[in-house]
Amino acid sequence: MSKEHKKSKKRKHNEIEEKTFLQEIKKKRKKESLKNKSTKNDMVPINPFYCLKIESYISIPPIYSSSPMKGVEYYLDTMILSYLPNIQGIMLAHRNCEFIDKTAKIYHESPFAFAWVQFEMLVWKTKTGDFLEGIVNLQSPSHIGLLVSGFFNASIPKSAIPKAWMYQEIMSQEEVEQNENGYWIDQNKKAVKIGDKISFWTVKLETIGGIVSIEGTLLSKNLQTNNIQ
């Protein structure tokens, strides 16, 4: 084998190694970029408000026979602030309601008319794993209470609060006289105050009597199994 052939073969080998090395760097950078992007997105609270276009089959009481749309709007008004299982959210408002068909139907001897309508619905909905933001309205050794979206109650139990946090009981007579409660102190030694905003992950949703309560956690998804009190 000639020297030139050996040099050519060596150059090709070096070029292949360099190309492979550059490809590995690009893959690593792309992976890190996606990881950072995912982490960043996870830390931004979601907007739990949705506008949905709904079609529904609605019964109209006979009292509204001369103005059926008022009967439909009355029915939709009764659904406001109710949890709707098929939508998995709470209806907050409706608008732009209209009949799909020109006529309604009356079955047998029923005094009610039935008609298909379509309308836009403003819904508040969240699910397990969503990252929400709430305003602190209660603190105790057992949990932190929050108000989400100005209306919905959320609770973060002690078991879902980082170990680095600590609860500070009231110490002075002045605090007792001012009816001040204890408060939590975060890992940066900053006191959590009533009215502060806290972001958290949704762990569980419960609906009792149409009222939704949220259980949350301050532990990240990676620490949730390793940082429980």
Q: Can you tell me about this structure?
A:
Residues 1-22 are annotated as: Disordered. DNA-dependent RNA polymerase which catalyzes the transcription of DNA into RNA using the four ribonucleoside triphosphates as substrates. Helices cover 24% and strands 37% of the residues. The chain has three helices and eleven strands; from the N terminus they run αβαβββββββαβββ. It has helices at 3-42, 68-78, 173-177; strands spanning 49-60, 83-84, 89-99, 113-124, 131-140, 143-148, 152-157, 166-168, 183-185, 197-208, 211-217.
CATH topology call of the largest domain? OB fold (Dihydrolipoamide Acetyltransferase, E2P)
Question: Largest sheet, order of strands side by side?
Answer: 5-6-7-11-10
What best-fitting shape do the alpha-carbon axes yield? elongated
- Corresponding CATH architecture of the largest domain: Beta Barrel
Query: How many strands in all?
Result: 11
Order of helices and strands: HEHEEEEEEEHEEE
Mean pLDDT: 80
Largest sheet: 5 strands, mixed, barrel
Count helical runs: 3
Q: Please identify the top-level CATH class of the largest domain.
A: Mainly Beta
**Binned strand content:** 35-45%
- The low-confidence parts are 33-41, 222-229
Kindly report how far apart the N and C termini lie.
Answer: 71 Å
Structural class assignment:
alpha+beta
Give the helix proportion (percent range).
Answer: 10-25%
Rounded to an integer in angstroms, the radius of gyration calculated over CA atoms is: 29 Å
In the residues, how many domains can be counted? 2
